[in-house]
Amino acid sequence: MFMTDSDVRPPADLREAIEQGRTALGIELGSTRIKAVLTGPDHAAIAVGTHDWENQFVDRTWTYSLDAIWSGLQACYASLASDVKEKHGTELRTPGALGVSAMMHGYLAFDTDGELLTPFRTWRNTNTGDAAEALSELFAYNIPHRWSIAHLYQAVLNGEEHVGRLAHLTTLAGYVHWKLSGEQILGTGDASGVFPIDVTTGGYNTRMLTQFDDLVDGRGVPLKLAELLPAVRPAGEPAGTLTATGATLLDPTGTLQPGAVMCPPEGDAGTGMVATNSVARRTGNVSAGTSIFAMVVLDGELSRVHPEIDLVTTPAGDLVAMVHCNNGASELNAWAGLFAEFATALGVSADSNTVFETLFRAALLGAPDGGGLMAFNNLSGEPITKLHEGRPLFLREPGSTLSLASFMRTQLYAALATLRIGMDVLQKSESVKLDRMYAHGGLFKTEGVAQNLLAAAINTPVSVGNLAAEGGAWGIAVLAAFSATRTESQTLDTFLTTSVFADAQLNTADPDPADVAGFDAFMQRYITALPIQQAAVDHS
């Protein structure tokens, strides 16, 4: 078990650190929760704030309003400030460093006056297929549906009026950072989900920038893409400071003061890598929440383009193979809610943690192959399986036994199935080797369940550690501290290994041969049943 700062340091020391600004504040806007984490001098979390929110499906587009972004951030920060006051008897006025992270990709487009031109289009939208296919062919480089450049080119293809007034586009993390600091900047990892990065220079790929400009000019849309994109900064470089306006945006009470050093904003994939100490080559991590994705830091280039694999970077700029699946634990959450409702109808009181613990533990007793049950967790489209819209399904063979144990194992397998398809490309087609694979996110909170099944799914040992329990908000706080304290020769990997994770303890699960064989059998049936999922989309 990791110990927090408050476990090992006197309360007066922590209060002094807070009052002297020897802290780092990380804020991450996830798909269902905004979270803030304040870390002390030893990088452990000393206070936490949260705010739950949810995307809206408006005009067939997944989105969040700007009002929801700022009201959510203010509520989250207020929750954090209250936690600081309660735990440490003081007010948070001047954190030494600040970082913002958010769900990667998507499209926020602004005019010259800084006005939003079209509702925020999140990573969850998969209506950019024509653009992604055309750009992938043009660049000879896989461009996923959710990348910002795919959204922009789809708008061009659709003849959307706003394109002619476009002055600046960014991600959600980049937008919040801009408003807090006045700087239009992205961290390298988040930028790599906007437009391809040249890992030799650390900037956008200039050949592809020119190709894009020529492409849209041929359609009568004279754009200079380099002028529209945020500047790129690697981890460790300062990216402005919290302004007075930004401080008021976060904390309308006026208690928070300007001046905190800000690190480059990052996406949740990059902060997940930091939170699991998996930024070195031949390491990887799996993050599981609303979406599920694997990040594997490569030794070198892949042999060819694979539509299942995105090439992005670590926050430091190293090449990463990303397997991103739009659908993760949301369907599991829905079933857990149904079981909780049934328990309430029986007059049994059970909190959500107890419900999840009970259901997940049951999965360990299920048939290794799911016992003839099948599930699809697709609430939204899933590019890896070429599904344009989602239709969650549960089905079973007539001779199967419908038990809670096998049902829950099947639901957990379904959450991992699309990830397995992408990992097969890396591990089998490309022979990519992994020294370490870490896991974090809500799916892994119940010890020894999803972790064990993931180990079986990818036939690789999977480690979970307590520091990663605070997730990307803690990861961006660590990146903020790195920007504020970095020495000239210090790399991100060195900083994490020697300063943050030096005393880390991990719980590692090795693949169980019976579960490996069971998951393989489940996957054969899953792939065979994919046309059923498509038929549900086509006929409902």
From TrEMBL:
Pfam families found in the cross-reference section: FGGY_C, FGGY_N
GO terms classed as biological process: D-xylose metabolic process
Carbohydrate kinase FGGY N-terminal domain ranges (all copies): 24-249
Residues covered by the Carbohydrate kinase FGGY C-terminal domain: 285-483
SUPFAM superfamilies referenced in this protein's UniProt entry, alphabetically: Actin-like ATPase domain
Superkingdom of origin: Bacteria
Presence of keyword Transferase: yes
A single MF term (Gene Ontology): kinase activity
Keywords: Carbohydrate metabolism, Kinase, Transferase, Xylose metabolism
InterPro entries linked to this entry: ATPase_NBD (IPR043129), FGGY_C (IPR018485), FGGY_Carb_Kinase (IPR050406), FGGY_N (IPR018484)
Family statement drawn from the similarity comment of this UniProt entry: Belongs to the FGGY kinase family.
Name of this chain's protein: ATPase
Lineage: Bacteria, Bacillati, Actinomycetota, Actinomycetes, Micromonosporales
